[in-house]
TrEMBL record:
Biased composition (Polar residues): 461-470
Chain intervals for the UniProt region annotation (Disordered): 450-471
Protein name (Swiss-Prot/TrEMBL): Response regulator of zinc sigma-54-dependent two-component system
Organism: Hyalangium minutum
Any GO BP annotation: regulation of DNA-templated transcription
Length: 524
């Protein structure tokens, strides 16, 4: 039997197809899948391109890559043409995709109205009108289903054809295998072994598979869906802001604002104003009411960076927001109510600050409802360093429109044995500099690292002690390369700090701080 009719007689359920010829346009779509997946490219961008190409080839208006979350028995949209919402989840067995994942059969729906498999809630949620739909299962090499590939609304026709079904099945076969080599598949597999850990969370921009990082992922998965206040601790540059964003986008507030306040970048006198805003006439020059970051973030998340720099008087006001979600603007008496989640970060020892009377004890306990201590890079082991380095080589090459160079074995060895006092940020800058300076593969000498790493031991899985030698090649110290690069970028954007910060992908305040260190005056 080739197909079976359902309910309204409009859905065709197909048995798995035997090996079939591959239409040439399909090979076009998949031309670069294998090679792209093999490299550490931005997974989000890659999956989106994949879904774009599939939709074009299938002459469909939209495409969706659904993946299976075994912990919740749900499918979630991992990459899709879904401008209306950030993600959709359906129960296994629910709707066409849910049925395909459960039954392992392809389903072709020429006319969704009246079709019992069709889950109209999604159209209601997005406002999109599905007129035809085709969905096929996504299997790994062992034949286990781990997702669904779906296309919507055949262009210029009322329905997807038999040939379309064959084509999408071939595509799904290749995509299914290709995705198996990504961290995404590893995540799904891990969730299968640990059914309590839901997946579908957006960790793909965070690189790292070390046990230290994995335990942080688990914490984020638990804390993100709640409204719990989170305190992120860790050395500078180890990814606190990145994780703060992961907490936000993995929680129910993901479509609401994520507002950052950097307490270190503001003079103490301005922090209160920045957080809580001010009323008209609060001080000379305050000629109208200005809302603060808490109001700007209403319904979303406020990320308070460098919490240890928060002046004592403002600490009391923050405590009240944590307890009662209310405050008064500077110079005001009217109480403002806000609905925000608070995530804070610090590289200071807050407990010590409490004992020194510099940080309020009650605030300390209120803020560390969930505490995450991010490991310094040197403790994450050589494999994570290599993963990150490869990722940064690829992204830097893309950013500067250069051929992606290779990391030589000697370069890798040096990266793995260096101590990384500036953590991932330092590695990122170091690799970027080497990518820009090298021709061809990244030879060891292109890495702006001191030849003598005066730091202590190599990372856990790093193999050798750093060689102690002089600096025969007269290499520049990292700080000098960074300074040189920053000034070059600044020059190229004619001194525009906002533009320079954008090119450098650092905050404007960070740039201002660095320029100040180089002896430049603050901007007027
Ligand atoms: N695990 C990671 N994977 C990929 N990129 C990372 C990772 N950790 C950090 N980065 C990158 O390193 C840089 C520094 O990270 P981030 O700003 O989150 O650190 P931080 O701990 O908040 O630093 P600071 O304490 O100085 O504010 C960023 O460009 C970030 O994207």
């Amino acid at each position: 039997m080739l197909y079976e009719c359902y309910g309204g007689g409009t859905a065709f359920v197909l048995p798995p197809l035997p090996t079939m010829p591959q239409p040439s346009d399909v090979s076009q779509v998949l031309l670069s899948v294998g090679s792209l997946v093999g490299r550490e490219v931005d997974l989000d961008a890659f999956l989106q391109t994949l879904v774009d190409r599939i939709a074009i080839t299938m002459q469909a208006d939209r495409g969706t890559l659904w993946l299976l979350d075994p912990a919740r028995g749900e499918l979630f949209s991992r990459a899709a043409h879904l401008p209306e919402v950030s993600q959709i989840r359906v129960k296994l067995g629910q709707g066409v995709a849910g049925h395909v994942a459960q039954a392992g059969e392809s389903v072709n729906v020429p006319e969704p109205r009246g079709e019992r498999l069709f889950f109209a809630d999604i159209d209601r949620m997005t406002g999109y009108r599905t007129t035809s739909l085709l969905a096929v299962p996504l299997r790994d090499t062992e034949g286990a289903i781990y997702g669904v590939l779906q296309v919507l609304n055949k262009r210029g026709a009322e329905r997807f054809t038999e040939e379309d079904i064959e084509r999408l099945t071939v595509i799904a076969g290749q995509v299914g295998t290709a995705l198996q080599s990504t961290s995404l598949y590893q995540e799904l597999k891990r969730a299968k072994d640990q059914p309590q850990a839901p997946v579908g969370y957006f960790f793909n921009r965070i690189i790292g598979e070390s046990p230290q990082l994995k335990s942080i992922y688990r914490l984020v998965q638990k804390a993100a869906p709640t409204d719990a206040t989170v305190l992120l601790r860790g050395e500078s540059g180890c990814g606190k802001e990145l994780f703060a964003r992961a907490i936000h986008v993995n929680g129910p507030r993901r479509d609401k604002p994520f507002v950052k306040v950097d307490c270190a970048a503001l003079p103490a006198t301005l922090i209160e104003n920045e957080l809580f805003g001010h009323e008209k006439g609060a001080y000379t020059g305050a000629d109208h009411r200005v809302p603060g970051k808490f109001e700007a973030a209403d319904s979303g998340t406020v990320f308070i960076d460098e919490l240890g720099e928060l002046p004592l008087p403002v600490q009391g006001k923050l405590l009240r927001v944590l307890q009662d979600r209310e405050f008064e603007r500077v110079g005001g008496t009217q109480t403002v109510k806000v609905d925000v989640r608070i995530v804070a970060a610090t590289n200071r020892d807050l407990m010590k600050m409490v004992s020194e009377g510099k940080f309020r004890e009650d605030l300390y306990y209120r803020i560390k409802v969930v505490e995450m201590v991010l490991p310094p890079l040197r403790e994450r082991g050589g494999e994570d360093i290599e993963r990150l380095a490869r990722h940064f080589v690829a992204t830097a090459a893309k950013r500067h429109r250069l051929e992606t160079p290779r990391l030589s074995a000697a370069a890798l060895e040096r990266l793995k044995t260096y101590r990384w006092p500036g953590n991932v940020r330092e590695l990122e800058n170091c690799v970027e500099s080497a990518v820009v300076l090298c021709e061809g593969e990244i030879l060891e000498e292109h890495l702006p690292l001191p030849t003598v790493d005066r730091g202590a031991p190599a990372p856990a899985t790093g193999s050798t002690e750093p060689t102690v030698s002089a600096n025969p090649a007269g290499l520049l110290p990292l700080a000098e390369v960074e300074r040189h690069h920053i000034l070059r970028v600044l020059e190229s954007v004619k001194g525009n700090r906002t533009a320079a910060a954008k090119v450098l992908e650092i905050g404007r305040n960070t740039l201002a701080r660095k320029l100040k260190e180089y002896g430049f005056a603050d901007e007027a």
